[in-house]
Every structure is written in C-alpha cells, then in structure tokens.
Amino acid sequence: MDGVLLIDKEQGVSSFDVVRVVRKKLNVKKIGHAGTLDPLATGLLVVGVGEATKILTFLSLGYKRYEVCMRLGISTDTYDMEGKILHRAEFKPLTRNKIEDVLSEFAGEIEQVPPPFSAVKYRGKKLYEYARRGERVFISPRKINIYGILFRSMEGSRVCFSVKCSKGTYVRSLVNDIGKRLKTGAVVESLRRTESYPFVVEDAIKLDELDKRLPHCLISIDRALSFLPSLLLKEGYEEKIKHGQKISPDFFAQDLKMERKLWRVVDKNNHIHALVSCNGKEFLYNRVFSCHCCKENVFLNSNHKP
Q1: Could you report the per-residue pLDDT of 163-188, keeping only the tens digit for each?
Q2: Contact 251, 282 (CB under 8 A)
Q3: Which fold has domain 68-187?
Q4: Any idea which architecture 3-62+198-222 has in CATH?
Q5: Catalytic: which of 2, 8, 38, 203?
Q6: What pTM was computed for the model?
C-alpha cells in the first residue's frame, strides 16, 4: 500500500501518535509525516504510506496556512499555554489598530529564532533536550517568509489571526515575538493548520475515520505530486530512467529550457517515474519510483485540486 493520507489531527495527539496509529491500522512499516504539528495544534497533517514516504520532503516545501489564537499578558518557556509561566502582567486593553499595525510589521521576509522547546538540532542534540535541563543555547536567527498575516478577532486578552507562511516557520516564535513588540507578552492558546500546499484541511479525515474511509482516502503518488511541472518521456525511455541513466533532453517529448526547478517525469499515461531537478546545466535525479506504487485510484472529499 502506497500513497498519501491527509489527517485532521486532534488536540492532545502528537504527530508521532498519528504515525503510530496509521502504522498499526494499515500494518505498513514505512509511515512518515511532512511538517510536525505540536500536540496543542490541530489540523492538517500530511502522512506518507509506503513508497510515498520518499516524497514527503517535497510535499513539505510549500507554504502553510494557520488559524492562530494568542493570549496576551503572559509568557511561558514553551511559548504556548502548556509551558511554565515565566511572566504574567496585568493586561491593558489594546486597540484593534494597534494590533493590526504590529501584525503588519511581521509581513515579508523576517528573521526568526526557533523556540527553545523544539526539535531543531544544536551540536547534535535537539533544543528541547537542552531546555529540559535548564541549559540556554543561542541559535542564530533563520530567514522565513510571512506571505500574509490578517487580524481576525479580539476578545479581552485573546487575539486571533490567520497567517500564510513559508516552510520552517514556528508560529510559537512568531507569537512570542508579537508579544514582545506589543510589550505585553503573548503565548499560543490555539493553533490550527488549514493548508499545507498543495493540500487543504477540508480534504482531510479524522484519525478514527480511517478504517471506514480506506482505500478511497489514499491519494496516489501521481496525484500528490500533480502540482509540479511535468516532463513527458518518449516512449521506450522508461527503462533508462528506472536504471538511473544520465538524463539527456533527448529523453523527453517537448522542447526544454534548462530552468532551475523540480520536475516530475511522466509517461504518456501520466504515471510518474521520477522526480528530477535542473541546476541550469544538467538534470539530476531526486527520486526514482517503481511504477506499481503510483497508480492507485484517488478520491478527495472536496473539489480542491492540488
């Protein structure tokens, strides 16, 4: 069994818990996920089954959308409501204009430091390992992109907003930084991922629905990667790709520009055989697939097309 599952993760369940349950239900060892969700968070978790674990890296490259609610006037060591309280201040009401002005300051390319309780590695260890021992480490800021950030609502010290961001963005760090800019402190109260391009949460299923929704909820590798541009193989060239022969433009049925991008290599039936990239001079293999793993039927819950 090979393909992609879209799971609408519930609060209190870790991403690894989802993988463990799917592995047990499907009796398949090769299970993975693209883009970790904290136990506090809900929403879209992209899960790879079998050969589809090979494409999770590529499925995690796209932008993400989140619905976020933060609590002002408090700071914790985890940057969310589940952590140890470090500071609590008397909350003084802010105007919507003030909050919107601060949110707008985070739009575009910004630098962000991952939260201390995260799986980012420093000198071979994960940051949360240092944090649990009370050790402070200093991580260099990383460049991320906030493509859009929009105020949604405000009730007392609870402020909600939506954000569209690049891979690698930590919403907990974003909220912590917003709290600093507002001079109130802030932590994540609730977080829901609604999109991980090219997938949306409306097409996801609950974990307890998995038994009755299989196999119709399994998205083939062909379909999962259909958002990428394609290179059409000439008939009879499939074996050359299968055996990893050096790629020549002569393999393909269309005229090519040596553009720096990721391509899927397909046959006349639109079945994927490989993922290749171009460095401007030559094509390089990223992944090669066995044909049997890419042809399952696909049924999505909505009309959304990747």
Answers
A1: 999 999 999 999 999 999 999 999 99
A2: no
A3: Pseudouridine synthase (3.30.2350)
A4: 2-Layer Sandwich (3.30)
A5: 38
A6: 0.88
